[in-house]
Amino acid sequence: MFPVFREVTPEQEQEAREKILKFIKDRGVETGAILIFSSFRSMSRLGGMAGRFFLGPLVPFLPHDIEQYIWVLEKEENIDWLLERLEGERSKEG
């Protein structure tokens, strides 16, 4: 049996983190993202597993980089990285 999702290299992981951060900033939803990431940080691993379970059958039809985003968002250290960047931006503005 072959895995549906492949591991992501550190470079791909960093690129995905930057894309997520840009996506949030471009839409101006920093406050909402901070709230969501802070609230669900400890459940990120469970969320990643659920995403893989429910999206597994749909992977051939989804964008190829979906696995990178799931991989990034299921690690607490990546959530912390995103929170630091988002909160850092907010403190500069205020």
Features:
globular; 5 helices; 0% strand; 71% helix; mainly alpha; 94 residues
Q: What would your notes on this structure say?
A:
The longest helix has 18 residues, at 10-27. It contains 5 helices and no strands. The mean pLDDT is 84. The chain has helices at residues 10-27, 30-40, 44-55, 66-73, 76-93. α1 runs parallel beside α5 (76-93), α2 (30-40) runs antiparallel to α5 (76-93) and α3 runs antiparallel to α4 (66-73). It is 71% helix and 0% strand. By secondary structure, the protein is mainly α.
In brief, what are we looking at here?
This protein is 71% helix and 0% strand. It is mainly alpha-helical and 94 residues long.
- Main sheet: strands, sense, barrel: none
Number of strands: 0
N to C succession of SSEs: HHHHH
How large, in whole angstroms, is the Cα Rg? 14 Å
What's the tally of helices?
A: 5
Name the structural class. Answer: mainly alpha
Shape: globular
Q: Characterize the quaternary organization of these chains.
A: single chain
**What are the low-pLDDT stretches, counting only 5+ consecutive residues below 50?**
none
Strand content: under 5%
Question: How much helical structure, as a percent, in the residues?
Answer: over 70%
Overall pLDDT score? 84
Distance between the termini: 52 Å
